[in-house]
Amino acid sequence: MKVFDRLNRLLDTPLGWAPRALTLAAALFLLPTYLAPLWNLTLFAPQYPDGLRLDIYSYTLEGGNKGQDLKEINLLNHYIGMRDLVNDDFTEFKWMPFVIGAIALLMIRAAFFGRFSNLVDVLTLFGYFGAFALWSFGFKLYRYGHDLSPTAAVKVPSFMPPMFGRAQLANFEVYSYPMVATYAILGTVLCLLAALGLAYRSYRREAAKLKAG
Which domain holds residue 59? Predict the structure, then answer.
């Protein structure tokens, strides 16, 4: 039972100024998710030496060349029986901005009024959100590459577009990499982990003082 008593004391510990500041910084790092792309896919082929670019935001798809690249990608997809890439197919665009905003508000609440337990809750929730978002992105790519129409003009075997790095798909080189907003999310995670570490170190110092006294 002493273990649970110590755990309860730890979770009830108020956050110091440094963890509070880092938690606020973590919330601010989420701002680019509303302004910058999360991910980018670029396709190169002999007939497209400059590449076809697709940026994925938390709320929309945006093709390069003022949207023309997305139209060209969908035209190519039509020939191999792949569904068009349209916003309506991505339910994530409906809930992701809302969830990110809600988590940012919880971070601000933890910074101003929170305790160690609030910081743990926010980090756990954000970790779950990040893992689920990555899984959803990967599953969507898998379905696009495997649900091909049997009546397509050009028959290609089922494929998985790359989530990260380079892949050769027919005569296309496809590159997939995180963009500014994803790196900002990584900044959020690092700030929260640093805040958690500082808060725990402060708790250990206080506990040592009480034990020595």
Answer: 36-204
